[in-house]
Design a protein that fits this description.
Length: about 400
């Protein structure tokens, strides 16, 4: 079969037309720092995901950080216990450690590799955790019916880390629209990119306003006029002092209008890109043999950042990686494997073992999924993997 020389895990989604448009925009001497384009992107993003509000920041990690701190200071948590996933990303969990939550790790589901509902329920019964963090692993949606049923029964706040799941859907609703707060990443190689960038989505006006203040030093300048007036009245502040009054202990994790300009260009391709990645993912699933991969609910539409698979053993994975390398197909570890086996976690809480999470750690690997790949390319990649017997 005729083939390309290389199959990269990530390809540039910011294309030459985007760069040309950016260059023309530069010539108009725009303000560049956070401004009107950021607001426009936030509105378009909130509409696309299906939440009331969105707050643009400088990375997916910052989005998780803002979400964690907004929750902590919301007064809505009955305790500081938080159930965190073992498969995801270090900065899914890190803010909860940094802010003094009490994290409890949950094993991975054998199908989606998101939270294992059985283990989650056991932990909820045991610890009565006020908060649960769910990663929508690689853009394969978790079984939201089950998780939302548990949310109702055990009354927890849900933080949805959808950083690598832009465009994935569950029952025709975009992931990231299920949590009390959700996070997205626009890093290079993700479904959509603003170079670096992140977004926090929510339906709560209170959390939204808190996020706006936390994002920029703790001031109220980004709030709408009515809310600013309310704060001025509550704190008896005059107009001279108001712009530089700090209402909450904040960060500076803003992005810029330059990144928002690129984000708005990405929004124009969002539906097209999602459809390609959804289609590619299905081609992989229909043609992959000898390895396990993430399974999804019939009600879900995965839109993956990479196709994640598990070899039958570490030795099988070694041979698959060798075959992929020999054919110019880029691969790597499955996300971060089991986060409970990383020093940042076990130095504080001890090693976490769980059969599925451990298998992701020792046998997992990534295959490319991006919009540059044709069906023929994916069939070729499947052929290489399938040729390596367990
Ligand atoms: C699940 C998850 N959370 C958080 C992040 C961090 O996003 P960023 O690289 O934009 O900080 C990533 C990065 O890919 C991720 O996959």
């Amino acid at each position: 079969m005729q083939r390309r020389n290389t199959y990269n895990l990530a390809e540039r989604i910011i294309d030459n037309r985007d760069l040309a448009a950016l260059s023309s925009w530069f010539k108009k001497s725009p303000r560049l720092t956070q401004g009107e384009l950021t607001k426009k992107l936030e509105q378009e993003w909130a509409r696309w995901i299906g939440t009331k509000y969105a707050v643009f920041c400088n990375s997916g990690s910052s989005a998780n950080l803002l979400a964690a701190y907004a929750l902590l200071t919301s007064g809505a948590m009955r305790n500081k216990k938080v159930i965190v996933p073992s498969v995801g990303w270090a900065t899914t969990i890190a803010p909860f450690i940094q802010f003094g939550f009490e994290p409890i790790m949950c094993g991975a589901d054998a199908g989606t590799f998101a939270l294992d509902a059985g283990h989650l329920e056991k932990l909820l019964k045991e610890h009565d955790a006020a908060t649960v963090v769910l990663v929508q692993v690689l853009g394969v949606p978790a079984n939201m019916d089950t998780l939302l049923r548990l949310k109702k029964t055990y009354n927890f706040l849900l933080v949805e880390d959808a950083c690598a799941a832009l465009g994935a859907e569950y029952k025709n609703k975009k992931v990231g629209a299920f949590g009390d707060l959700s996070a997205f990443s626009f890093y290079f190689g993700h479904q959509l990119s603003t170079i670096e960038g992140g977004m926090v989505n929510t339906n709560s006006k209170e959390l939204y306003e808190k996020l706006l203040m936390l994002r920029s030093h703790g001031w109220g300048k980004d709030l709408e006029k009515q809310s600013r007036s309310r704060l001025m009245k509550t704190h008896a502040i005059d107009e001279w002092h108001e712009p530089f009054t700090f209402f909450v202990p904040g960060f500076n994790v803003r992005s810029t209008d330059l990144n928002a300009f690129l984000g708005l260009r990405q929004m124009k391709k969002a539906d097209k890109v999602s459809a390609i990645r959804q289609k590619n993912h299905k081609v992989y699933a229909e043609n992959m043999k000898n390895v396990e991969f993430q399974k999804w609910d019939a009600k879900a539409a995965p839109c993956s950042i990479s196709f994640g698979a598990l070899a039958s053993s570490q030795e099988h994975r070694r041979r698959i990686v060798k075959a992929l390398d020999a054919n110019g197909i880029e691969t790597r570890l499955f996300s971060a494997g089991n986060l409970g086996l990383h020093p940042f976690w076990y130095n504080l809480y001890g090693k976490f073992n769980h059969s599925v999470s451990d298998k992701v750690h020792s046998c997992g690997f990534f295959l490319p999924n991006n919009e540059s790949l044709s069906k023929k390319d994916i069939l070729f990649i499947c052929g290489v993997v399938n040729s390596v017997k367990p």
